[in-house]
Design a protein that fits this description.
The complex is a heterodimer. Chain A is of the alpha+beta class. Chain A has 2 domains: about 5-210, PmbA/TldD fold, CATH 3.30.2290; about 215-440, no CATH class. Chain A has helices spanning about 5-15, 75-85, 110, 120-135, 195-210, 225-240, 245, 305-310, 340-345, 400-405; strands spanning about 20-40, 40-60, 60-70, 140-155, 160-175, 180-190, 215, 220-225, 270, 290-295, 300, 330-335, 350-365, 370-380, 385-390, 395, 405-415, 420-440. A 6-stranded antiparallel β-sheet of chain A has the order 3-2-1-4-5-6. In chain A, a hairpin with a 2-residue loop joins strand 1 and strand 2. Chain B has helices spanning about 5-15, 70-85, 120-135, 200-205, 205-225, 240-250, 255-260, 330-335, 370-375, 425-430, and strands at about 20-35, 40-55, 60-65, 105, 140-160, 165-180, 185-195, 230-235, 290, 315-320, 320-325, 345, 355, 360, 380, 385-390, 395-400, 405-410, 410-415, 420-425, 430-435, 440-445, 455-460, 465-470. Chain B folds into 2 domains: about 5-225, 2-Layer Sandwich (PmbA/TldD fold); about 230-470, no CATH class. In chain B, helix 1 packs parallel to helix 2 and helix 3 runs parallel beside helix 5 (about 205-225). Chain B is α+β, with helices and mostly antiparallel strands. The chains are: A alpha+beta, B alpha+beta. At the A-B interface, strand 1, strand 2, strand 3, helix 2 and strand 4 of A face strand 2, strand 3, helix 2, helix 3 and strand 5 of B. Strand 3 (about 60-70) of chain A pairs parallel with strand 2 of chain B.
């Protein structure tokens, strides 16, 4: 057995010896690198190395968790959390960790490892391509991020495995004027498929088209959401599919399994496939990940589960543990029949929104919320950009917007950006009817 | 904490040739517990420790961290930070503003030490809040309560011979509830935060406040009416004042944002050199002064020295209605030819310190709430808020009322349903014509940085009266 996996396995066995009923240990050796840039120059490169083992254990349906960093004191730390379990309260909703010995796909670690020796080359390439679209008088900022994680998981209930998780991401925001900008990201699990020039070009093109924006007007609009914006909305909808969020009513999907929750053209999945920057082969309980249809042709099919929430909802785990909170790993919306150009050309009047941030709710169960479109915003009439806009807010309802999706593009982009489009997604362009736009008065 | 390794790292960094280097070690004891609908989901107990190096080499910055306390790893991270700093190849060198050397030790005292409270008592403290909430007579369909307690020990040294040791305990509680009545529901949340010991629970009266929230939400469901949109007077309670001060004063006054360093995440600022708004320009009514003060005793954003070793002090951001002083770290201060005012903060050893707020609030005036209300013919009293947001230049903002009442002819009337103010920073602060004398604070977690660094802050202020603003 691999040395680190063996050490991880010994931790769970020791936990059992000390009295735990069940235990999971997950060791992560992570190397993360991020180069930040603004005003067309590198500000700093931040590198962090983490060596940790996360442990969850149960004792008579009491669930306790810890993280080990100092491997000299493993026994002491295990004893301490078992002592906590003994004075803790029974959690009737805890039904044990996943039970089975699973087979996982083999991975070639060497093929995937990402080492960026000269981050400035990628960044300057993206800036160069932005300049080709928007001219040399632009101001660019963003991040170049890489992740190499080795994950070793052992559970007393059977799962035992090693995962290599890699990612490389570029985020670039280009300002062609003080209030005219475009934003794009490039995300991949391998360097081979990583193309900073594409993100630079797109951000530059949007920034160029966004010049001389005027304040938008309030009203009800049909809107086209670009992949960064739709990625943010997919994150919002999918977070609401976590069984935990259903139970605390942070969701529009409470008691909606089997019901129609969106327009027929919407099929929404979780699938942390090899291409994704959130790629993985098992979840935090060691259950093999899979493609999970959350919404299929408008019908709510399942919530996202770990083993305990699945028992409560009388179903099977979806491979989305989170020991406490099940979560989506990589969201995919099935591609549609139209494309971005057709969406634009077929609409007499439409707002094209390319990015958003600061999404906040009045009431998650009702779904009333607002979010602030940023970067390029276009009023398009008869297929032509009529005006670049600014200073608007999308103030609508999460449930209503799902039902009002009238177009999903064939083309999809793998996007991940900061806290907004997170978790990552394979996001299409979306056409949504009758969306309420407000503004400051 | 292995201070010897931190000292070694600095010596090693100096031996490689640097313009500046600092090493920050951190050890944190953390306990968290989560209750969902009355059941204890999990108890998390752990210790986190590690150290980082930040170096300035050839005008470029490099940062690296590790949680492995070995000499070999110390060398690795210093080499890494040094190499990446050199590789920056900037057109314009980064410089740090000159600051004095500080050698000191500081700590936040605990009246009731977190480490002396046993696990069972900690669990029961939070369970009791939950039980009181569940028994308050309001139909609460969902409850989520979390509690986090930590003790953070830091050791900071730099090439200017500063050496600062600190210890800060903090406690926070977050509650989220869904109240239902007659098939309708309303939701609300509340956060409590404190620098100090377990005595926080005696001060917060958390169950009273959460029960008040539950009853308010029920009242909104049963009695609240929508308003007719139009221009009205608005009285903002301290909670609303606080969020407005944080979002439309604190954030746009962060110098890193003003200089563009956060442009691809948290954004820029409507304040910028050569623009309409700069230091000395009018931003609002001359009775408005907004400060940021890290040294409010037991505040959630308390610190005595920032993460660059600069002594904390009160910053006057907007003063008498004018833009007065930005929030600075050493890098932004050098760019704008001034001194740092100790706004450099970070959440952990593996994160770069960036410009942050601490406790941002409006200075109180001389009126009572009653005096402010009695002079309003047609208005709204927005006690608290639900949804809020602001654009990334920090100019267009929106606050949706949670607890709110109609004011008619100087009297508080019925509750109203989700009144909205959607306005600009200038319009908001220019409309203020009266400020109450009672200062109150709320705890919040401010988001900024990539990766996100949620940092503890207070928002706050007295009640404000805004004249003739558009409400819907």
């Amino acid at each position: 057995m691999n040395k680190i996996l063996d050490r991880t396995d010994r931790i769970t066995k020791k936990a059992k010896e000390l009295g735990a009923d069940e235990a999971i240990a997950r060791t992560i050796f992570g190397k993360y690198r991020q180069t930040r840039f603004s005003n067309n120059q590198i500000d700093i490169t931040v590198a962090w190395n983490n060596y940790v083992t996360d442990i969850a254990l149960s004792w008579k349906k009491r669930l306790v968790t810890t993280q080990i960093q100092n491997f000299q004191n493993v026994d002491k730390q295990l004893k301490e959390i078992i002592d906590i379990a003994k004075v803790s309260k029974e959690n009737p909703m805890f039904h044990g960790f996943a039970k089975n010995k699973f087979l996982y796909p083999k991975q070639n670690k060497k093929k995937r490892i990402i080492e960026i020796e000269t981050p400035s080359e990628f960044i300057l390439e993206a800036i160069d391509y932005a300049e080709k679209e928007a001219g040399s008088d632009i101001n660019c900022g963003g991040t170049l991020f890489s992740k190499n994680e080795q994950v070793f998981l052992s559970s007393t209930e059977g799962p035992l495995g090693i995962d290599f998780r890699t990612a490389v991401e570029l985020s670039i925001r280009v300002f062609s004027q003080r209030e005219a900008s475009g934003h794009s990201t490039e995300c991949s699990s391998t360097l081979k498929n990583f193309n900073p020039a594409r993100a630079g070009s797109e951000a530059g093109e949007l920034a160029s088209l966004a010049r001389n924006p005027k304040p938008g007007k309030e009203g009800s609009y049909d809107v086209i959401l670009g992949p960064l914006f739709s990625g943010s909305m997919l994150s919002m909808w999918t977070a609401m599919a976590s069984a935990f969020n259903i139970m605390v009513r942070l969701s529009i999907f409470v008691d909606r399994i089997g019901e129609k929750v969106s327009s027929d053209i919407v099929t929404l999945k979780d699938n942390p496939a090899p291409y994704s920057v959130s790629n993985r082969i098992f979840d935090d309980e060691g259950v093999p990940i899979k493609e999970t249809k959350i919404i299929e042709k408008g019908i709510m099919k399942t919530y996202l589960h770990n083993s305990s929430t699945a028992k409560l909802f009388k179903t099977e785990t979806t491979g989305n543990a989170g020991i406490v909170v099940p979560q989506a790993w990589n969201i995919e919306m099935d591609s549609g029949r139209t494309n971005k150009e057709e969406m634009i050309n077929e609409m007499k009047k439409v707002l094209y929104l390319t990015n958003t941030w600061y999404t906040r709710f009045q009431n998650h169960e009702k779904g009333d919320f607002s979010t602030i479109p940023r970067d390029a915003i276009f009023l398009i009439e008869n297929g032509e950009i009529k005006q670049s806009l600014k200073d608007i807010r999308l103030s609508d309802n999460a449930s209503r917007m799902l039902k009002n999706i009238k177009g999903v593009s064939k083309e999809r982009r793998h996007v991940h950006w900061w806290e907004e489009a997170d978790p990552p997604s394979l996001a299409p362009y979306l056409l949504i009817e009758n969306v309420k736009i407000t503004k400051s008065k | 904490m292995r201070k010897d390794l931190i000292d070694y790292s600095l010596k090693y960094a100096e031996s490689k040739g640097v313009e500046y280097a600092e090493i920050r070690g951190l050890e944190e004891r953390i306990e968290q517990l989560l209750l969902k609908n009355g059941e204890l989901e999990t108890y998390y107990s752990s210790s986190d420790s590690g150290f980082c190096v930040r170096v300035l080499v050839n005008g470029g910055l490099g940062f690296a961290s590790t949680n492995k306390w070995t000499k070999k790893e110390a060398k690795t991270i210093v080499d890494l930070a040094h190499r990446t700093a050199r590789a920056a190849e900037r057109k314009k060198d980064i410089e740090f503003a000159d600051e004095k050397t500080v050698v000191t030790t500081w700590k936040v005292e605990q009246k009731k030490k977190i480490e002396d409270v046993d696990y069972e008592e900690k669990i029961n403290e939070v369970l009791n809040i939950d039980m009181e909430l569940a028994a308050c007579g309001v139909n609460i369909k969902a409850r989520m309560l979390s509690c986090a307690a930590s003790i953070e020990e830091k050791y900071f040294i730099n090439t200017e011979r500063s050496m600062i040791t600190s210890s800060v305990p903090t406690i926070s509680v977050f509650g989220f509830i869904t109240v239902s009545n007659g098939g309708r529901n309303e939701q609300g949340y509340r956060q409590f935060g404190y620098s100090g010991g377990w005595e926080a629970f005696d001060k917060w009266k958390a169950s009273d406040k959460l029960i008040h929230d539950a009853r308010t939400l029920k009242k909104i469901i049963t009695n609240a009416k929508a308003i007719k949109p139009g221009k009205k007077d608005l009285i903002c309670g301290p909670e609303v004042t606080g969020i407005a001060a944080h979002e439309s004063c604190g954030h746009p006054m962060e110098a890193d944002r003003i200089l563009g360093r956060e442009m691809s995440q948290a954004g820029r600022s409507f304040i910028y050199e050569g623009g309409q708004f700069w230091i000395g320009e009018t931003i609002g009514s001359d009775i408005v002064t907004i400060v940021d003060d890290p040294k409010i005793v037991n505040s959630y954003g308390y610190y005595e020295y920032d993460d660059e070793g600069i002594e904390a002090k009160r910053r006057y951001l907007y003063k008498n209605g004018r833009i007065n002083e930005f929030l600075h770290n050493r890098e932004t201060a050098a760019k704008l030819d001034t001194r740092s005012n100790a706004a450099s903060r970070t959440t952990n050893y593996d994160r770069e310190a960036i410009v942050r707020m601490a406790n941002t609030f409006v200075l109180p005036g001389d009126m009572t709430n009653e005096e402010m209300i009695e002079d309003v013919r047609d208005g709204i009293y927005m006690v608290s808020f639900t949804e809020w947001n602001i654009d990334d230049k920090r100019f267009n903002q929106r606050y949706v009322g949670k607890e709110a009442y109609l004011i008619e002819k100087g009297e508080l009337k019925n509750p109203i349903s989700r009144p909205v103010i959607e306005t600009t920073t200038i319009k908001f602060w220019s409309a203020v014509d009266a400020i109450s004398k009672r200062l109150e604070f709320e705890a919040a977690t401010c988001g900024k940085g990539d990766p996100m660094q949620g940092i503890p802050v207070f928002t706050g202020g007295p009640a404000l009266r805004l004249r003739d603003v558009y409400m819907k």
